[in-house]
């Protein structure tokens, strides 16, 4: 069953930050249903446990908590994971924050929050779980890091989102530099740059987003859970084992049509 084994990720261990909502929850659900022992993290242990229990109806899922906006958040999350596991096959850096508004109204607090969660915590969580990624990695079956970037880091939208766009563009560059650093150690690092998917940051049911989708996306629709599940499973499986350092736009053709 060559086709099945090519995309088989069963038996792996994954950690998904921001795993209780939006794209993180979509990815976690896809992993759990395919036999991946999945840990989902959020700021609140009760919320993580609630969603982990829901996902666990289809497989193994456990909740962890850490505030990745805080300087010690990545180390705390890595320590909580290390209490339960000795290796990590798949790290999904999905936790995100946003701060829209004109440059005249932007505060240093909002800027630091967005860059702290979207970029700093991604880097330092990867650093903190590196021993567990190395423990899982082999030439035949590399460990994987999947970073969530954004099409907002590939182009400038028609509204002001300065810290968000800067943070996501930096995530794409960091993905390349980490891929170069860790490739020889059999750890592959890639990024997904989503277009509009329903999340706490993007309401795809709003008139504004519907208009944007109809105007700018050749596929004519927002993303669905199956869309991001498919790409994340590909990147985590043997099928994606020669993809490294790439930022893949998952946007229905938005960037291509600009």
What does this structure look like?
With 258 residues, the protein is α/β, with parallel strands linked by helices. Helix content is 42%, strand content 15%. Strands 3-2-1-4-5-6-7 form a seven-stranded parallel sheet, with helices on both faces. The chain is globular, with a radius of gyration of 17 Å.
Tags for this model:
258 residues; alpha/beta; 7-stranded parallel β-sheet
Strands of the largest sheet, in order across it?
3-2-1-4-5-6-7
Going by CATH, what is the homologous superfamily? NAD(P)-binding Rossmann-like Domain
Count up the domains.
1
Helical/strand content category: alpha/beta
Which topology does CATH recognise?
Rossmann fold
What's the helix-strand series?
Answer: HEHEHEHEHHEHEHHE
Q: Regions with pLDDT < 50 over 5+ consecutive residues?
A: none
Main sheet, how many strands, which sense, barrel? 7 strands, parallel
Number of helices: 9
- Report the sheet-strand fraction: 5-15%
Can you tell me the CATH architecture?
Answer: 3-Layer(aba) Sandwich
Q: How would the global form be characterised?
A: globular
Radius of gyration equals 17 Å
Overall average residue pLDDT: 96
């Amino acid at each position: 069953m060559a086709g099945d084994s090519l995309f088989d990720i069963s038996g792996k261990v994954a950690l998904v930050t921001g795993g209780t909502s939006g794209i993180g929850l979509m990815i976690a659900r896809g992993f759990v249903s395919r036999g991946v022992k999945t840990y989902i993290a959020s700021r609140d242990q009760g919320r993580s446990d609630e969603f982990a229990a829901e996902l666990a109806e289809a497989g193994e899922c456990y909740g962890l908590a850490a505030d990745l906006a805080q300087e010690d958040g990545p180390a705390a999350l890595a320590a909580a994971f290390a209490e339960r596991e000795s290796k990590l096959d798949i790290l999904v850096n999905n936790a995100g924050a946003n701060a829209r508004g004109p440059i005249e109204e932007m505060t240093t607090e909002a800027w630091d929050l967005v860059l702290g969660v979207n970029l700093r915590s991604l880097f330092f969580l990867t650093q903190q779980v590196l021993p567990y990624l190395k423990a899982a990695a082999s030439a035949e079956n590399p460990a994987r890091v999947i970073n969530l970037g954004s099409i907002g880091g590939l182009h400038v939208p028609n509204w002001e989102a300065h810290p968000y766009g800067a943070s996501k563009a930096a995530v794409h560059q960091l993905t390349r530099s980490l891929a170069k650093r860790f490739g020889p150690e059999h750890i592959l690092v890639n990024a997904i740059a989503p277009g509009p998917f329903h999340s706490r940051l993007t309401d795809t049911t709003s008139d504004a987003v519907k208009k944007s989708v109809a105007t700018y996306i050749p596929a004519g629709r927002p993303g669905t859970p199956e869309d991001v599940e498919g790409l994340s499973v590909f990147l985590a499986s043997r099928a994606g084992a020669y993809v490294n350092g790439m930022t893949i736009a998952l946007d229905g053709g938005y960037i291509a049509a600009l």
